[in-house]
Amino acid sequence: MKTGEKLYLIDTYIAMSLMNRDETSLRARVQQENVSICVITLGELLYGAHHSSHAEQNITKVQEMFGLYKLIRCTKSTAQHYDIVKERLYRLRKRLPTKNIWIAATAIQHNLILITRDQEFDFVEGLRHEIW
After folding, report:
1. Which CATH number does the domain housing residue 51 bear?
2. What is the pTM of this model?
3. Which residues fall within 8 angstroms of residue 116, CB to CB, at 6 or more apart?
């Protein structure tokens, strides 16, 4: 890794978009960056693939995609970050889906910039994120 290089984590929405044939500019941009993906996103993508009308084909796409990026797993530290994020959101009276709290906690824990198209992450204190 080069000094000053940005490190990114993609959320589920971006990961799904990357599997869409029409998202060539997004794929090109992601390929130029140091991008990781978390196990929460893997679970979400596999669940969606299993329940799609082309399950086998989509499961294969998901598995191929996860070969392209570093996989970030959840640890005890991730759970501690999750607790902090969820508590802060509670105090702000802001709701975020549980999966997104885990993704945000993972990004914060590993000092990654979250790539998303979801503006609800704006309310997560300490989370660096970019809307792509």
Report:
1. 3.40.50.1010
2. 0.92
3. 10, 11, 13, 14, 129, 130, 131, 132
